[in-house]
Amino acid sequence: MLICEALVIEQDDFRLTADVTFDKGKITALIGPSGAGKSTLLAALAGFLAPASGRVLWRDMDLTPVPPGARPISAIFQDNNLFPHLTIAQNVGLGLRPTWHLTADERGCVERALSSVGLAGLGARKPAALSGGQQSRAALARVLLADRPVVLLDEPFAALGPGLKDEMLDLVQSTLGVAGRTVLMVTHDPDDARRIADQASLVAAGTVSAPVETRVFFEAPSPALSAYLG
Amino acid sequence: MQKSIYLPLVAGFALCASGTSAQTPVLQVMTYDSFVSEWGPGPAIAAAFEQTCGCDLQFIGTGDGAALLARLQLEGPRTEADIVLGLDTNLIAAARETGLFAPHRVTADLDLPITWDDPEFLPFDWGYFAFVGNAGAEAPISLRALADSDIRIVIQDPRSSTPGLGLLMWVKTAYPDSAAELWADLADNIVTVTPGWSEAYGLFLEGEADAVLSYTTSPAYHLIAEEDDSKVAWAFDEGHYMQVEVAAKVAGTDQPELADQFLAFMVSDAFQSIIPETNWMYPAVVPEGGLPAGFETLITPATALLLSPEEAAAIRDVALDEWRNALSQ
Amino acid sequence: MAQRAVAIAPRWPGAAAAALVLVLTIGTLAAVGWRAAWQGGLTPADWAAVRFTVIQALVSAGLSVLLAIPVARALARRQFRGRAALITLMGAPFLLPVVVAVIGLLAVFGRAGMVNSALAWLGLPAISIFGFHGVVLAHVFFNVPLAIRLILQGWLSIPAERFRLAASLNAPVGRLLEWPMLRAVVPGVFLVIFLICLTSFAVALTLGGGPRATTVELAIYQALRFDFDLGRAALLACVQFGLCVVAAAIVWRMSLVDAMGAGLDRTVQRWDLRWPVLDYLMIGLVAVFLFTPLGMVVWRGVPGLALLPAEVWAAAGRSVIVAVASALLCTSMALALALRGGRMVAITGVLPLAASGLVVGTGAFLLVYPLINPARLALPVTVLVNAVLALPFALRAIGQAVAGVERDFARLGASLGLSRWGWVGIVVLPRIRRPLGFGAGLAAALSMGDLGVITLFAGEAQQTLPLAMYRLMGAYRMEAAAGAALVLLALSLAAFWICDQGGRGNADL
User: Fold this and answer.
1) Where is the signal peptide (chain B) (predicted)?
2) Which architecture does CATH list for B127-242+296-328?
3) Count of the separate structural domains present in chain A
4) With CB atoms 3.0 to 4.6 Å apart as the test, which of A173, A218, C110, C202 could cross-link to C106 if both were Cys?
5) DSSP B227
């Protein structure tokens, strides 16, 4: 379980509180208006922002003092998920071990990860030679390979067309979901949540509400959610 | 790529250590740059001295005469130099004031137009300052005539070069009471003031000026080395100020015998015969074979002007102020 | 708790580089001051030098910027064959050793130069290059290319979309887009050039025409050389620092220039263009002004090449080693400082601009002398001092790029758990290759032509190419010296070009 325990995040005059538990092995959608603090919450979970107070716990371990790279968490951001000067294989390989050179075994793992996201044989290319969807797949492959239990997705597919986006969401479910990862996915599109999320949580008015089963979330919306959905 | 880039760095630092063998005694002579250069007297003199001394003669070259004194003052009593070579009379007083020098023990028959009896500083060559211009062009007969003419000259800064300082003394000796006026009249003749001799001479050869402050011996270079007789030194009625270049033994030297030996060698034929055609100055002692062919064509000033080191030091600041004021108008 | 996104780069190299800069700037000044026998303050002549220095620097910087604006504008909006090559070549004067550049300028503007020959042919009176205007002319020659580069960068930083928007609104581009950009960029450019001219030494020395044109740096030289008055030299150096600080403080509030170097090879499509002739005329005039003196250096130098003694080639080799080492050291220091970031580092990075090269050299001599014979350290000290003096330029190019990499990729790097050195090696270095190459080229070229430090330290065996050239002149061999000048010119430009290209090659950025 990933627990936000009386977590308070402050940035200038913005303030977000979270006192919630995200279930292990579930895909949870974080929904809310822009500027509500969805990405800020992910930044705090990933360790890029130190909370003003409260703690982040994973399996009873306090993550608050742990630096980003040492947390059991990987992330895919809105952009800049791949280093443009490295090949796709090198980029994906960084999930395994942060060095230039991988062993033959490790290169095999990279190739398998690439195959599982439909990028078999494209490892030697640079990101610029790939389409937007393929770049997202490469980032996903790296997260798969990183083998960290928690995955944060900060609207990584927002720039893709609807068809392509659904394809990627399905891929998230069939890979990360099947692998039992705990996934937190930021989105402002209810359809994304309906498509793959087990649970959904509303981020609005400076608070993160407790996650609810997705079907219930939308069928019996809270007043705040109703206001957002319009 | 990543690894290979360190190699030049290592090579660069390895270059700096110069080898000295433990057995051979080393005599270090601090002097000005052009003395040391491949085209100066340095290499031939080192070779000649090393034949007899059983030692290693090393030069420390630094700027010109003025820079040499500054370097010496920076280093103070801890200097590694055993001999300092290349100061001129205008710098002797300041050099003496450092208290770094020991008396020399050389008695030699010097061929100078003046008498020399300095206990510490021994001349190795000398020359007359003169303006050098192109043959066939208008040639003034005095400093005064030059100041009254439209001739364009380039001179050196007295604060950074020995010829520049020499000109300052020349004007002051020739016109003790009216140097300021002469400088004021010269001001419109002066194209520019350069930091050192090389820049000034270069500008003259490039055609930037009709004449340059140099030495009566300068035409000898063009005549002998380039077979070019188009450069002449102008003889002036007021007389010509002299530059006498000297050397002295550093009191704290760890090679006192070698240093004495070098000073004796300095006024011998072996050293003196090298001077005329490398330093392009008159040797302090004319060698047995006489002066090289070509030197007889040079002008010989009727009057040799020279202030004693003490006199030169005493009037330096006044003369400099006159110069600066006149040229700052 | 406010914090940077992630502090993942190693921090001690930045501290070490900053310490080195401080030792060589403030430390050397302190060494000179400490050794001084204080004999009283500055003379009226010294204050005249301060006045002259400030005035000529103001005029030089002002003219450079004024001239650069229309040229940068023309280059920003015209696309033509050879544009990229022209921009690269335009950097040449800035990289040129002063001694060499003066030869070229004299060949054009001197008494027997091209301009005066033309004037004489037209029956007009001759002009003289010596004096205040000569100093300004040379400073403009050196610094116009830098100003063009920096201002062109400003023009190209205006997003193309804005021009499209302005065009669709039929709004005046000049007032809407260009004027605000210039207001942001020009003060910084002016400051940099002002500082460069403030500490100018060799230009005033040869073209000044006499004691009237004494700059502060020249007064320091004379205090050191002529009077051996270390106290006055230190005082003057403090005055020079003070002037730089005042100038920097005035401009500090206005925004400073963005990166220089990379990304000048594009133009922005524009919809408001008339008068192409004027643009090309501006570019042509500046090109003639910059390239004719260079051409004359080549023309004069070629006959001298055959006369060069072997010793000169050995000196050239030594100069190359000095340049390579200095470039390596300079870029390493700039990278270390850029990775550390912060205001103190920014200040440390510009400190060398305000330092007096002569005081640095003399101070270094005083610091080194008690430990080891300075002649043995001539080349290493030359490397060190030149690396530090070129640092502000390299840091300017590299700092922006490093900040960009951190902005874009710090989170990704942190979440991947890259080590500090891994972050530098895998991410930063490959991504800043272009500015790194540019900075290295600049440092290499600038130290190739150094004739400051080396003269103070050099012994018999360590002559570099500029020193060899100077010694050739001292031995009446002016023609061979012109040949050496040509070699120096070629090596400086080649060093810059190789580093710059090395940074560009095969880069997927």
Assistant:
1) 1-22
2) 3-Layer(aba) Sandwich (3.40)
3) 1
4) C110
5) -
Distance CA A198, CA A183 (A): 10
| Nearest-angstrom CA–CA distance, A112 and A120 | 8
**ipTM for the complex shown:** 0.84
Per CATH, which fold does C44-300 belong to? MetI-like fold (1.10.3720)
Is C59:C193 a contact under the CB 8 Å cutoff? no
The residues near C41 (Cβ < 8 Å, ≥ 6 apart) are C232, C235
Count Cβ neighbours within 10 Å for each residue of C195-207 and write b for 16 or more, e otherwise: bbbbbbbbbbbbb
Secondary-structure class of domain C1-35+306-509 per CATH: mainly alpha
* Both structure tokens of A168: 């990627």
Structure confidence at residue C272 (pLDDT): 61
In this predicted structure, the answer to whether residue C325 has a pLDDT above a threshold of 90 is: yes
CA distance C382 to C450: 8
**Helix (H/G/I), strand (E/B), else coil: B61:** strand
The CATH class of the B24-125+244-291 domain is alpha beta
How many residues are listed for chain B in this entry? 329
On chain A, the residues whose CB falls within 8 A of the CB of C427 are: 83
CB A64 within 8 A of CB A52: no
Alpha helices by DSSP H, listed for C78-229, are: 83-90, 92-95, 98-109, 114-121, 132-156, 160-169, 173, 179-198, 202-207, 216-225
Please answer yes or no on whether C210 and B61 come within 8 Å at the CB atom: no
Cα–Cα distance for residue pair C415/C412, rounded to 1 Å: 5
Tell me the C-alpha distance between A3 and A59, whole Å: 8
Residue C456 reports pLDDT greater than 80: no
Could you tell me the maximum CA-CA distance found in chain A, to the nearest angstrom?
55
Q: Contact B143/B182 with Cβ under 8 angstroms?
A: yes
Chain C interface mutation, best of B33, B165, B204, B227, highest count of C Cβ atoms under 10 Å? B33
The residue type of C78 is: R
User: Can you state the angle between helices B162-174 and B65-75, rounded to 10 degrees?
Assistant: 110
- Tell me what pLDDT residue A89 has: 92
pLDDT tens for C368-424 read 877 777 767 778 888 888 898 888 888 877 887 888 888 888 888 888 888 888 888
In whole angstroms, give the CA distance from residue C334 to residue C328: 10
Contacts with A99 from chain C: Cβ below 8 Å: 422, 426
Mean pLDDT, contiguous 10-residue spans, chain B (329 residues): 34 38 81 85 92 90 80 85 92 91 89 90 95 92 94 89 92 93 92 86 89 94 90 94 94 92 93 92 91 90 91 90 85
Instruction: Tell me if A202 is assigned to some domain.
Output: no
Chain C interface includes A218 (CB < 8 A): no
Q: If you ran DSSP here, which 8-state letter would residue C256 be given?
A: P
Q: Are B101 and B120 in contact (CB under 8 A)?
A: yes
Q: Which residue of C has its CA nearest to A49?
A: C5
